Amino acid sequence: MGVVTNKTNKFQACIDACKKCMQACYECFSECLNEPDLNARKNCLSILVECAMMCQMSVAMMSMDGQFSKQHCKLCASICEKCAQECDMFKDDHCQKCAEICRVCSEECRKMASM
C-alpha cells in the first residue's frame, strides 16, 4: 500500500523486498565486521554495501514512480543476486539469512522490471 497515494501499489511487493534486503545487508555487514576471517570477507563486505544502497535507491525510485524504475530494478536484481552468491560463501547464520533475503529481492525486482 502506498503511504499517501495508491499510485505505487503495483510496486509494493518490490518496495517491501528492497527495504528488507537493505536492512539485511546492513545488518550482515555489521556482523561480518566482527568475524575472525574479516580479511576473507572483503568482497562480501563491499557488495553488501552496494546492494543495500541499490535497494535503498530502488525504494526511492519506485516510491516516486520514477521513469527509470524498471531499469533500476533490473540492475538491482543483478546486484542482489551477486550479493547472495558472496554471502553464500560464508556459512554463518547472518550471511545465510542475508543470501536468502537477497535472492527474494532479486526475484521481486525482476518481476517488477518485467511489468
TrEMBL record:
Pfam families: Csp. InterPro entries: Csp_YhjQ, YHJQ-like. This is Uncharacterized protein. It comes from the Bacteria.
